[in-house]
Amino acid sequence: MEHLQIAAKDDTLKVDFNAETGVLMLEGESYPENPIDFFAPLNNWIEQYIQEVNGPLTLDTTIDYLNTSSSKCMLDLLEALDNYYESGGKATVNWYYEEDNEDMEETGEELCEDLEIPYKLIPM
Asked: Considering the entire predicted model, what is its pTM?
C-alpha cells in the first residue's frame, strides 16, 4: 500500500499517512473552499488501509486552525478511526496544540469527547 503525502497549501493541511508505520500526520491550517474534496482521499486511504493492512493506526494532528466545514470533515475522519477501534482495531489520536491556542484545544476536545477511541490533548 502506498503512502499518502499531500503538501500543505495556504488553506490546506500537510498530510503524511505512512502505510508502513500506521502513523497519520496532519499539520497546519484547513479552510479550503471545498473541504470534502480535500478530505475524501484521506478517508479513502484509511478505508483501504483497514481493509488491506488492518494494523495499528495513530493520528497525530498539529492543527492551528479548522473552519467549520473542515471541522465536520475532521469529525468524519475521526469517526472512521473510532469505528475501526470499536471493531477491534488498534487506533489512537494525539491532538497537539500550541499551549496558548485555547480554540484548538477546545476543538480537539469537542471532536474527540463523544468517541470511544483513546485520545490525548498535548500542549506544545
From this structure: 0.94
Segments forming the whole domain that contains residue 97: 4-123
Tell me the CATH number at 95: 3.30.750.24
Residue that the C-alpha cell 495556504 belongs to = 10
Grid cell at residue 114? 463523544
DSSP per-residue string spanning 3-67: -EEE--BTTB-EEEE-TTT-EEEEEEEE--S-HHHHHHHHHHHHHHHHHHT---EEEEEEEEEE-
Number of domains in the chain: 1
* Identity of the amino acid at 29: E
For residue 40, what pLDDT band results from cuts at 50, 70 and 90?
very high
What is d(CA 61, CA 122) in angstroms, rounded to the nearest whole number? 10
